[in-house]
Every structure is written in structure tokens, then in C-alpha cells.
Design brief:
Layout (H helix, E strand, L loop, with lengths): L2 H20 L4 H21 L5 H17 L16 H5 L1 H14 L1
Helix pairs in contact: 1-5, 2-3
Amino acid sequence: MNDELRERIGVVAGKLVQAAMASGLTWEEIVAAFGLAAKATAQAAATAGHATPSKCVALARNCLEDGFAQDVHVAIADGSAPRRDAEADKNPLLATARRRQASKLH
């Protein structure tokens, strides 16, 4: 996988995680939702004629395993650190982390 593709996939993954964190689901529920979405995507690919349903699902599983093999770095603000800039305040992942931290304090 080239660097440009890796970067594009990383951007999409980041957006998916931000949206999922804002949903209010637990992290375990979010992981289950990603698995369900991967299977649904594979089934849609099969319906579009890319391959048989079983081949598309098998490829989706391989892609998920390949994703797990990637090195990932995550930074979540805990709400106690000073705000760095306006863009950080717009990040749903950071906002969710701040909201969860605040709810633990009350």
C-alpha cells in the first residue's frame, strides 16, 4: 500500500472513529458496528458483481485483519489540559473525551 492510499484510509478511519465516539456507544459496541459495516459493505460489493458473497466476505475479513496489523497512534485529550486551538475544540473525538471526563467528575 502506498503512502497516499495509507493516508486516505487513515483520514477515513479517523472520521469514522470520531463519528462513532459521538454516537454514545461503548467502544466494544463501536467495534461490533465496524464489523457489521464491513460485512454489509462486502455484501453490497457482491450484489454489485465484484465477486461471490462468500469471496467478498472473506476478502473483507482479510482487510479487517490487515487493518489490525497496522501501527496506530491515538491521542485523546482528557479535558484537564488547556485548549490548544479552535480546531481542537471542533474535533468530536476530543469533545467526546472531554464530555466523558466531565461526567466522571460529577
